[in-house]
Structure formats: structure tokens, C-alpha cells
Amino acid sequence: MKYSKIIAALGLNFVLFAVFAVLGVFRYGALDDYFMATVLTGAYGSEFDPHLVFVNGALAYCLMPLYYLFPSVGWFYIFQMATIFGAFTLFSYCLIRQLGFRLGVPLAMLLSAVAIEFYASVSFTICAPLLAASGAILFIKGSIREKTLWLAAGCILLILGAMLRFQMFLLVIPFLGTLLLWAHFPFKAVPKKTLIALAFCGLAIYGVNTFDENLYNDPEYKYYKAYQYKRSFFGDGAHYDKEAISDELEERGMIPLDFKLLCAWNFYDTQVFSADSLDAIIKIANRNVYVENKQRLPAAVAMGISNAFTRNMAWCWCFICILILLFTGKKSRMYPWGSLVLVVASYMYLLQLNRLVSHVEMGIWLYAAVMGIPLLQKDNTVAGVSSKISSRLPIIVSLFALVFLAGTILSLPKEDRNRAVFAVPEMSKDWREFLEYANKNIGDVYLLSFYQYKDLGLVKNAPYEAAKPSSWQNIIPIGYWNINLPGMKRELEKRGVENPLRDIVKDNVYTIEMGNSPIYQLFYKIHYHKNLSVDTVQTFGDLMILKYREVSDEKNAED
Is 225 exposed, middle or buried (0-12, 13-18, 19+ CB in 10 A)? Predict the structure, then answer.
């Protein structure tokens, strides 16, 4: 049957997606993705906004027609889920095509079992390497066979991967370069089509990056983008001595409390925590960074790699490398060692940047595993390998595939399911009642700490449903990457708020907390020289709506 291999790949991945639909919970794996989707649909300001910070704005414009045609659909999430399904279908097809049904299907099942793990934690950081790896495989195959269509498809997927997460795209370049060297060694006859495709791909990625940079030329958006590094220095930083920084701030007559608030994601004060004001604290923090101990780097890399084997993707790399070592020619047998070198180099680079997180690790091992697929060959009766091993290999791989699948299913997060199929996180009664209250009082502003904002963002909308325009208009974070978003600032200005932390004393500004913390009162007294009282206006279970008011020194003394 002409299309039997593609049908088998589609059928296998459809079954695995159906398993996840029945047993898993559809949600974003990272809060960043949800709030990028809300920015895109105009949840702050009611207008389509392509300024996604982490994702290239060109991708936002690619999705824009779909949002206009079907505005209630969460196309950003659908695009990411389609990326996972499409990428693993392509990997499965390549394995079946190269190894035949007998060995290709079990190995495809083993690799695609990991897709369930990706569905359960979908994010732009793990979808970008899927696009880049898919594009790299098509590019390699197109280069070897001189197929223009395959080269073009590979370029498009590589460009999409760069648009979705440019830093993750960069990690595929060494693997792609290695495979191109393998394919065309000793470089006497590199096809002209390959060189043209590489040049086109490079220019296109440069073009979309330039396009994205130009989106932030407006002064408001320029400040918004420039603020990202400075707030992430504190929100994401773990490479400096916090006690030493606090001591130096105090010695210099500065305020250690400001640093503590910044590290706890409380920085929406446009005066105290302006971009210029943060520079002084960053300068002090840079003098108190931990000294890099390069002697411990090999041990850290070894520990990181050993931890990676608690997930399936690293084991998939092992299986593919074993097949390459057993059943390919001498030239291809260098790949396992070369890919391991690239993995180690990636770990060393990310450890030095202090950015080795689980989603990035998954991308590294994905590259290492799937970039070995073009080296596999159907004839697995190489001299020196026992015929018993060759004949029983499909059974062995099938057993491991079933173990991988069972382990992946068992490791799915245990959550209450609100429906039998396509379940989403359940919103608590507390948040539901608060949202009803906030919608009735649309002229008021409700300030949420990062942790409350995160909790609400994970449950407010099903990921496959688009956040409605202006649906977050009066719910504002005290600290997150989207503060200073021009649309958010306009919503605040409509309600007479220019500086959220300073304006918590205004009649229409409230904070949402789980308990009364004195930190805002202390901050206000230090910077604005006023004492604050706090009253509980309303409660919804554990959630409290608090109102801060200025009180005179005389009244405070009497109290």
C-alpha cells in the first residue's frame, strides 16, 4: 500500500494523543505561554497585540488570521499541540520508512511515547526544538537526495522553530552541522540546492528577528522590552549572594527591603523600581555574584546527565545509538560519541548561564535522539552481530516501548478531572467568586502578587479557548514579566492609577492576598513616608480583598 507508512505513523500518534486526552489534563506547562496568549488576544486593552517578548512577533502575525476567523479558539495552544503531534508523526514516519514495519513501528512507539510527556507540559520552550528537529531532519534528507521540496519544508520548520524560541533553535545548529558534515564528507560535492537553502534559511531568520526588534521601536514598547532583563535578573536570579547584597545596600544607605521585594517578584512601582533605579541594585549584585568554580563543572554536568535518565528522552537516545553502533557502517558509528560531546557542551554552556531547566534539557536530548534517525538503515544483519539479536530486536524494543508508555502514563500529574475527555484544570470556588466580584466592579483595580496571579492564570481559561478581549483589564500583577505592557498601563490610567504600589491607597485599588502581610505597609512608609492601615473588604474562602489607607501619625500613635 502506497501510503501505509504514513498511515501507520499517523495512527500510532493518534492513539497516543487519544490516551492523553482520556488520562491527562490539558494545560500549559508554563505560565508564560498562557499570558503570551492573553497578550495576543488583547486581554489587556482589547486589541490584538503581537508583542510577546519571548516569541517572535512574526509568529503572532501568522496566527492573527485564525484569531480573526475563530476568535474564541486558543490558536496559540492549538499551534503548540499540533507541533507536538506533527513532529512525533514525522519522527515515526522516518523510523518506519528507514527500518521497515517490523522494527520501525516498535521504535516509533518507544519514541512517540514521550509525546504524552510533551502534551502534559506543553510550552514554547519544548515546542521550538520539536520544530527545529523536524526541520533539520527534512533538511538533511533533502540535502542527501537533492529534493527541493524537502529542503524547503525543512527551512520553513527551522524558521518556525527560531520564531518560537530562538535560543532553543541555536542549540540545534551543532547537530545539524554535524549531520551535514556526515552526509557530504569529504565536502567535494555539496549540492548547490543545499547551499542555497542554507543561505535562504539564515537570511529569513535574520529577517524575522529584525522584524521582531522593530516592533519595539515605539518608546513605550522599547521600555517594556528593556525592562525584561532587569526584572528577570532578580526574579530568576540565583547566582549571587543575597545576604552580601543586602549588607552592601545597607552600608551604602540604600534599602535592603527593595532587593527582597524584587527577588519575591514585587516590582510594579514605576518610581522606586523603574528601569534606571534597578541599575544601581544590579551593579551591587554583580559585585556579589558567586565565584564560578570550574573544577566542579564536570561533576555538575555528570549529575545533570544522570538526572536526565529519569526521563524517557535520554533512553530513546540510548536505543537509537545502540542501533547505530550495531547495524550501521563505520562512518555512522561516530554519531553516538559526537552527539554525546554536543550534549556535554550544551550542558556546560547552560550551567555557566545558570539556565539549565527541565524543558531545555528535554530539548537537548530530543536533538541528540532524533538527529540520529537519518543514520539508521533497514538492513540490520551486519557481520559480527548475532542473528539472534537481529531477529529478537523488535521484540526487545516493543517490550521497552510498553514499559516507557506505562511509565509515562503513570507519571502524569494526578489532578481532579472535570470531564472524561479533554479535561482541564478545575477552577476553585474561591477564584470563581472573586472573578464574578471583579467583573461587577469593573472600575476597580485588583492587584495580585505573582503567586496569586500564577494560580489564577493556570485555571481562568481552558488552554484551547482564547482569553476574551479585556477579560483581565482590572486584574493586575504586582510582579510578572508583563508589567509595563502598554495595554495594561492604559487600563490602569482609565481607572486613575499611574503607579500601582504607590496607588494602593486610592479608593478603587485593592490587593488580593491569602493573609495580611506587613511588607507593603513597610515599603510605603519607607518610600512615601506615610503609615498605612489595612482592612478586609471581602473574603472568598482563603482569598482576601484588602484595602490599604493612609493614616495620620497622630492616629497611628493613638492606635
Answer: middle
Write down the pLDDT at residue 558.
Answer: 46
Chain-centroid distance of CA 229 in Å reads 17
Look at residue 425 in the predicted model and tell me its pLDDT.
Answer: 87
Spans of the chain below 50 pLDDT: 381-383, 557-559
**Residue that is written with C-alpha cell 466592579 in the block:** 441
What does the pLDDT read at residue 146?
87
- 10 Å CB burial of residue 461 (0-12, 13-18, 19+) is buried
| Residue corresponding to grid cell 484569531 | 67
Query: In degrees rounded to 5, what are phi and psi of residue 509?
Result: -115, 125
Helix or strand holding residue 546 (H, E): strand 543-551
The one-letter amino acid code at 492 reads L
Distance, CA of 512 to CA of 520 (rounded, Å): 12
- Mapping DSSP to helix (H, G, I), strand (E, B) and coil, where does residue 237 land? coil
d(CA 179, CA 309): 24
Q: What is the pLDDT of residue 389?
A: 65
User: How many angstroms separate the most distant Cα atoms in the chain?
Assistant: 94
User: CB burial class (10 A; 0-12, 13-18, 19+) of residue 388?
Assistant: exposed
Is there a contact between 136 and 175 (Cβ–Cβ < 8 Å)? yes
The β-bridge partners of 252 are none
Measured CA to CA, the distance from residue 531 to residue 395 in angstroms comes to: 73
Give the position of cell 520539536.
130
Residue 434 C-alpha cell reads as 472573586
**Helices 57-69 and 148-164 meet at what angle, rounded to 10?**
100
* Secondary structure class of 411 (helix, strand, coil): coil
Closest CA to 237 of 285, 284, 293, 279: 285
Would you call 140 helix, strand, or coil by DSSP? helix
Q: Which amino acid is at 262?
A: L
Do 63 and 44 meet the contact criterion of CB atoms below 8 Å apart?
Answer: no
CA-CA distance, 471 to 460, in Å (whole number)? 10
N-to-C CA span, the chain: 86
d(CA 283, CA 304): 31
